[in-house]
Specification:
By secondary structure, this protein is mainly alpha-helical. Helices cover 69% and strands 1% of the residues. The chain is built from 15 helices and two strands. It has helices at residues 2-10, 14-31, 34-44, 51-64, 70-84, 92-108, 112-120, 133-149, 153-167, 173-189, 193-204, 218-234, 239-250, 260-269, 279-292; strands at residues 210-211, 214-215. A hairpin with a 2-residue loop joins β1 (210-211) and β2. The longest helix has 18 residues, at 14-31.
Length: 299
């Protein structure tokens, strides 16, 4: 390995140098040898390799990592990030690709928070490269959605708050919808039930069935409407809650929901304080929350 890298380093022609390094990289990946992979990375980040070459080779390395087993991919990408850290300003594009690749891997394993943490390490405010607001918004929303998969409202809210400064000027309908869903879910998890109910109800009234490349099906809208009803039932008593309950009761779509009998019961008995609901009613609400109220990915 050392002699092959030394020979490649000695090549004057840059195109030939890159091709020789790519040949070595292919051999390293085929061997599944973690030590050889780390030696290659160390060499790429050394002063022996011009920056333009090391950037290209690290990018190629990352793109080819899919040839390795998942655990090897994780170890290698974490090693690259650790070694790059002192020179991260010189490798921002490569770090972005590496973090996105590793986040995809964690997401495929349903390690949602790890995927979110990996993406949160991307510098979205870098002065070294041009980053448009749509990309910033997409990453903030993506990170929030990942945290919400683990019901982590605190970390999700931090990124939705960042997204709030970007979404008002965005024309990207899919991202706007995803932002709205995340916001409603965060309010829900924070037990701000009435605010969550209003946002869920707003989502349930979407008229478009195709937004960008996203298809909005009736089941998703029904799920949002059911969430609006459930949150309203669980909200604290007050005039606004009474108005929302009345609005939902008058909405013909609610009569088709499985939670509708509870809505009827709450209204008919004028039981507006969650703490005074009969035990049977509370148990039914809880059961519905578990069975019919999985809004982690409603769209």
């Amino acid at each position: 390995m050392e002699s092959a890298l030394a020979n490649a380093s000695a090549i004057v022609d840059q195109r030939q140098k890159i091709e020789q390094y790519k040949h070595i990289l292919s051999t390293v990946l085929s061997s599944n040898d973690i030590l050889q992979a780390k030696k290659f990375i160390d060499h790429m980040l050394s002063d022996d390799v011009p920056l333009v070459v090391s950037r290209q080779l690290l990018q190629t390395f990352t793109q080819e990592l899919g040839r390795l087993e998942a655990e090897l991919q994780k170890e290698i990408t974490h090693y690259i990030l650790d070694q790059i850290h002192p020179r991260v300003v010189s490798f921002e594009e490569q770090v972005l690709i590496i973090r996105e690749k590793l986040a995809e891997l964690y997401e495929s394993e349903q390690q949602w928070s790890k995927a979110a943490q990996m993406l949160s390490g991307i510098d979205l405010d870098s002065g070294m490269r041009i980053i448009d607001d749509t990309f910033r918004l997409s990453k903030c929303v993506q990170i929030a959605r990942l945290y919400l998969e683990d019901d982590d409202a605190v970390n999700a809210e931090a990124f939705i708050n960042k997204a709030s400064f970007l979404v008002s000027n965005s024309q990207h309908e899919v991202l706007i919808l995803q932002y709205k869903v995340c916001y409603a879910r965060i309010l829900d998890l924070k037990r701000k039930f009435l605010e969550a109910a209003l946002r869920y109800y707003d989502i349930s009234q979407i008229e478009k069935r195709q937004i960008g490349d996203e298809t909005i099906d009736e089941d998703a809208l029904e799920q949002a409407l059911s969430a609006a009803v459930t949150c309203t039932i669980l909200a604290a008593a007050g005039p606004q809650r009474s108005r929302v309950l009345a609005t939902l009761y008058k909405d013909e779509r609610c009569s088709k929901l499985k939670i509708y009998p509870i809505l009827q019961k709450v209204l008919s008995l004028f039981l507006m304080i969650p703490g005074t609901l009969p035990h049977a009613c509370i148990s039914t609400c809880t059961s519905l929350l578990v069975r019919f109220y999985d809004l982690k990915s409603p769209f």
